[in-house]
Amino acid sequence: MSDSPLYAGNLFSSPRLRLTALRPDDSATVERWYEDSEFMRHFDASAAFPRPAARLHDFLTAADKSETAFRFGIRLHHTEDLIGLIALDDILWPSRVAWLDIGIGEAAYRGQGYGGEAVELMLRFAFHELNLHRIQLTVFSYNERAIRLYERLGFVREGIMREFLHRDGQRFDMVFYGLLAHEWAAGLGRG
After folding, report:
1. Is 149 part of a structural domain of the chain?
2. pLDDT tens-digit map of 163-176
3. What does the angle CA 86 – CA 90 – CA 92 come to, to the nearest 5 degrees?
4. Is 153 helix (H, G, I), strand (E, B) or coil?
5. Does 121 fall in a domain?
6. With contact defined as beta carbons under 8 Å apart, do 71 and 85 qualify?
7. What integer pLDDT is reported at residue 184 of this predicted model?
8. Residue 189: is its pLDDT beyond 80?
9. How far apart (Å, rounded) are the C-alpha atoms in residues 3 and 75?
10. Cβ neighbours around 2 below 10 Å, total
11. What range defines the domain where residue 153 resides?
12. Pairing of strands 156-167, 134-140
């Protein structure tokens, strides 16, 4: 434990959830999420379609062998149930930059603040443990709930890829956000 005012408690734990290693039996849970088009259409720009557990197992464990990715399961404290995924990917160590990905797979836990708690934990890990300087992400313009979350946490809208995504006969923008370590430190407590 540290006495630093920027650090409080377990690095991977918040009041309601924990970030954990992904486990072999998590593939079956994630397979079910990939059958949920709402999850898929927020989590991925690829076409939404079910994926088999074996393929998802490779995706979930790929970060274990990588020096440029950290992937965690988002679990409830009281049950240990897996409710989502969060990752830092494509880390550019010389520049100390990473991409953030998050998805709450269990529909019953969407819109209840779990994503925000998980992102705050991941930012603490990214800036305090990995000593990263910048975290960046993309979000589709129709995902207004995620946009509100990122802006509340201090992410700055940096650009837009206009009409990037085609879904249901409409075009949607992909929005870029970034957060610098000193911006996050200055805004602690805002979330």
Report:
1. yes
2. 999 988 999 999 99
3. 125
4. coil
5. yes
6. yes
7. 94
8. no
9. 27
10. 9
11. 17-22+68-186
12. unpaired
